[in-house]
Amino acid sequence: MNARKAKQEMIEMPGLANAVVIVAVVGYVIFRQFQARQWNPNPRRLLVVPAVLAFMALRDPHLVDPHHQALSAAFLIIGVVVEIGLGTAWGFTTRIWTDAQGAVWSKGTKASFFAWIGMLVVRIALYAAAAAMGVAQGQAGLLLALAALLLVRGAVVTWRAREFAPAYGSPAGSL
Fold first, then answer.
1. Number of Cβ within a 10 Å radius of residue 148
2. Is the pLDDT of residue 34 over 90?
3. What pLDDT, in 10s, does the model give residues 102-112?
4. How many structural domains does the chain have?
5. Cα separations in angstroms, 58 against 54, 61, 88, 91
6. Mapping DSSP to helix (H, G, I), strand (E, B) and coil, where does residue 61 land?
7. Which residues face 112 on adjacent strands?
């Protein structure tokens, strides 16, 4: 009895940890998105959070519903592809500018807020469609989609910010 209970608690723990990570990452990202931030050109910074989220998702044994593997995998793929598209839209709604010293800055806009609302609506619709078909959708799929979303949004903002970045590391006219 104790071994079964311990095993059940071990199975439930990744779900709780994933939920905490999802809430923390989304809260952090939303909070930071609407604050003006100086752009950091370090590409490793762009990869850390999505890599951790993807690792957590891929290690979860409940990533795909074992009773509906094909349908579950289809919902997982659709969810990631949709989040890639929404991440692209989110990246283009971010305002990017340079200050008087030539530093590149970014900040979310009202359109960014509506992009978040759209992401939420799409995610709820996907969960509802999967539930209507009897397919279990766990937190691991959400973690993987969130990883794709953040990676693509970061890539789009980085690509756009490079247009504003000074050539050769110094602002124009500073010589």
1. 23
2. no
3. 888 999 999 98
4. 1
5. 6, 8, 23, 25
6. coil
7. none
